[in-house]
Amino acid sequence: LDHKELLLHYQPQVNLTNGTILGLEALVRWNHPQKGLILPGSFIETVEAMPLISRLGRYVLDTAMTQQEEWDRSGLKVRISVNIGARHFLSGSFRKDLEELLSVHESRRQTPERMVIEITETETFRDLLLVQEMAEFCRDRGFFLSLDDFGTGQASLTALQKMPVSEIKVDRGFVRRILQNEKDRAIVASLLAAGQMMGIDVVAEGVETEEEGRILVGMGCRWGQGYAISPPLSPEQVPGWIGSWSPPPSWIDGAVF
Q1: 89-93: which pairs have CB atoms within 8 A and are 24 or more residues apart?
Q2: 74-79, long-range: CB within 8 Å, 24+ apart, which pairs?
Q3: DSSP readout, 115-169?
Q4: What pLDDT is attached to residue 159?
Q5: Which residues pair with 202 in a beta bridge?
Q6: Could you tell me the pLDDT band of residue 66, with boundaries at 50, 70 and 90?
Q7: Contact at 8 Å (CB) between 205 and 221?
Q8: From CA 64, how far away is CA 233, in angstroms rounded?
Q9: d(CA 127, CA 125)
Q10: Which ranges constitute the DSSP H helices of 209-257?
Q11: Judging by DSSP bridges, how do beta strands 6-15 and 21-32 pair with one another?
Q12: In principle, which of 44, 172, 191, 209 could form an S-S bond with 205, CB 3.0–4.6 Å?
């Protein structure tokens, strides 16, 4: 952070059958001067256990808002999701950071609904009342809220019903096993059904193969992200990718909705 070695890449989230772009998830990378590009799996767990996670979260929010404004000026209107660590999200500094960034990025005051605050269910739901309070704080300022890794943590469907959540993301572990494991396929189907009944978008994470995408489409899954769609892209790569993306024919032919 001090040496400005962090940057963001963006992974598309798409409609699996018609090519509509739902948005982009901002993913942080460490551009190390000796080791090159380091993915967050190598450092983010350590950072999340430190007060430094709040500073990192603010950096990612600020950078994503700046990038969105640059794309807006070029005519590219996209939604961006930003992961916020549990320690930061549940702290008083998150309120302050969000208010200050909205002041700095004046255009976001007009269109905050194109920014999504994404929190991980497994870490965040240790204090349900505080989670609900912070979720309502984000909603009142116009931000959407997404629950990452849904189905692996402590959040119940009752809690989900009470919170202003617009999206849940099916954990990639379930998606990875839907081809071999009937129980995992049943879990994904139940999450899709719950989302439909509650009016909540369900995004399948970790769609790594065309076959996984085909199975998800056949189950009625509308939204997905993963390497079968696109790897994370640099900001410069995003406009070209959006102009050329189309789903595989097997996904279009298998649609049931």
Answers
A1: 89/57, 89/117, 89/119, 89/124, 89/134, 90/124, 90/127, 90/130, 90/131, 90/134, 91/54, 93/54, 93/58
A2: 74/239, 76/238, 76/239, 76/242, 77/114, 78/21, 78/23, 78/24, 78/114, 78/238, 78/242, 79/22, 79/23, 79/24, 79/114, 79/115, 79/116
A3: EEEEEEHHHHTTSHHHHHHHHHHHHHTT-EEEEEEETSSS--HHHHHHS---EEE
A4: 66
A5: 168
A6: very high
A7: no
A8: 13
A9: 5
A10: 210-218, 238-244, 249-253
A11: antiparallel
A12: 172
* 114 torsion bin: left (phi>0), alpha (psi -120 to 50), beta (else): alpha
pLDDT at 111 over 70: no
Give the global pTM: 0.92
The answer to whether residues 193 and 160 touch, using CB atoms and an 8 Å cutoff, is no
> Two tokens at 131?
């989670």
- Chain segment 208-244, per-residue pLDDT in tens: 999 999 999 999 999 999 999 999 999 999 999 999 9
In degrees and rounded to multiples of 5, residue 37 shows phi and psi of -75, 120
CA dist., res. 221 & res. 227, Å (int): 17
Cα separation, 165 vs 158, in Å, equals 12
> What secondary structure, in 3-state letters, does 169-193 show?
EECHHHHHCCCCCHHHHHHHHHHHH
Q: What is the pLDDT of residue 127?
A: 76
- 171-207 pLDDT, tens digit per residue, is 888 899 998 889 989 989 998 998 888 889 999 999 9
Residue 69 CA to residue 113 CA, distance in Å, equals: 14
Handedness of CA 71, 76, 77, 81 (dihedral sign): negative
Distance (Å, whole) CA 106 – CA 102: 6
> How many Cα atoms within 13 Å fall on the side-chain side of residue 171?
13
Please name the amino acid found at residue 180: Q
